[in-house]
Amino acid sequence: MKRRHPRTARQWTSLDRQGRAPLYRQIYERFRNAIASGILQPGERLPSARSLASQLATARGTVDAAYDLLVSEGYIVCRGAAGTIVSPTLADVLHQRRQSFQTADARKNLRNTSVAAAGSSPGSFQMGLPALDAFPRSVWSRLAVKRARNLSSDAMTYQNPFGYEPLREAIASYLALARGISCSSEKIIITAGFQGAMGLITRTLLAPGDEVWVEDPGYPHARRALTAAGASLVPVPVDSQGMDVAAGIVKSPRARLAVVTPSHQAPLGVALDLPRRLSLLAWADKVDARIVEDDYDGEFRYNSKPLPALKSLDRSDRVLYVGTFSKVLFPGLRLGYMVLPDSLVDAFERVLDTLYRDSSTFIPSVVADFMTEGHFARHVKRMRQLYAERRAALAAALDEVFADRFDVKLQAGGMHLLAYLRHHERDVTVAQRANSHGLAVSALSRWSVKNDCGQALLLSFTNIPEELALREAKRLEQAIKY
Ligand SMILES: Cc1ncc(COP(=O)(O)O)c(C=O)c1O
């Protein structure tokens, strides 16, 4: 493996401080481009965060945020005292790609495809992934082959900008049954997952400088999408009843938007309680604000029925409900959906018509068949059972291996558990040690803006079969031993 000296300061002189892109994003993008284009080679060492921050005259946290993003996307790995290096696993992918793409255009593609491939083998404990081993691939491929064989002329023409109609109908039926939301398919838009929905929402509803409530701690990608749109973020603390709505009203009484995860707060796992749901809706109604309900994994509750969505209580049409297939099927689909308030249908239609004619028919048609033929409901039910088992097994294994070091908290639902660190350790440091051994552990504090909600590791159990739980807990122990 090549180990060169960290890059010198000369390359890092010109961050654009007046630009719209935040500084961490600019640093991230430069590294990403340098890696994809071969300027930085797999195995090559990056400057330490402290030294790069001082070269750039920026805060250490800014460089940390860029490095975290690069780690989470598989470009770089932290090797503890040995420093941070470009991921050696990219070598093969980059090499193969370079051989097969010789033109300038193809080299441009490389930047995207190589990293997608690099990111495709998840490390243990990786957040955000459903059980990849339990997906019914044979049913899926049967449905996909059938659709591919019977390509109709209709499917080859331009489609409704809101997306493939049969899928929107299937989603409307599913939401009525499973999430207590009654809506017609005309109000449903198919999106490129939650992230695609956020792009559409920010473009349609926000002007630069608009205040937006975000949960603190909360989903970093939601914050990034809002920041990229020039919104002014108002972090609202989360406690055991979910987002503290009263605190939000004090901090920013006339915010334009609030982005919340009411069924299963990301990442603390609590549910927004009924009084707060009602006061959030009442506040939005009073000041004409909108609420984005991110219902990313509401299907997975283990000891009780899934909670009805916030949208099901929305009498004054304030809530934009966003669902995703990333958790219930798989994130590589890049498929999600949004239920619009009546009053916003025209505004979204205009934006979709002009800018977002990107909804295809093929994948949505396979998903629609998967839903209408009953596979979807069966799959969700099976996964609920499987996750309950995997969750219990991992929690027991962690208790056994880390009884003295972790305080493992199980929430009512979700796809990860929280292991609070008992001995005043920094979660970021512990997570970095785990990452350098190929374990995709995340640190709770990375999800916070201001609200100190403790030091904990976020550990997904979805891809750890019961019989491997103890082995994985021991691997983690080896990786993070003092
Ligand atoms: C809070 C939250 N919302 C939404 C998503 C899903 O995003 P997407 O649909 O863009 O894959 C995730 C994925 O991890 C998440 O954690």
Number of strands: 14
Morphology call: globular
Bound molecules: pyridoxal-5'-phosphate
Strand fraction: 5-15%
**What's the story with the biggest beta sheet?**
8 strands, mixed
Which residue ranges are poorly predicted, with pLDDT under 50 across at least 5 consecutive positions?
1-5, 99-121
How far do the termini sit from each other? 27 Å
Helix content: 40-55%
Strand arrangement in the largest pleated sheet: 3-10-9-8-7-4-5-6
Please state the average pLDDT score: 87
Derived from helix and strand composition plus strand pairing, the structural class reads alpha/beta
SSE string: HHHEEHHHHEHEHEEHEHEEEHHHEEHEEH
Which features would summarize this protein structure in a list?
482 residues, four-stranded antiparallel beta sheet, globular, disordered N terminus, binds pyridoxal-5'-phosphate
Walk me through the structure:
The protein is an alpha/beta fold and 482 residues long. Helices cover 42% and strands 13% of the residues. An 8-stranded mixed beta sheet has the order 3-10-9-8-7-4-5-6. A 4-stranded antiparallel beta sheet has the order 11-12-14-13, with helices on one face. Helix 1 crosses helix 5, helix 2 crosses helix 3 and helix 8 (193-205) packs parallel to helix 9. The longest helix has 28 residues, at 375-402. 44% of the residues are buried. Residues 1-5 and 99-121 have low confidence and may be disordered. Residues 128, 193-195, 219, 261, 266, 294, 296, 324, 326, 331, 336 line the site of pyridoxal-5'-phosphate (PLP).
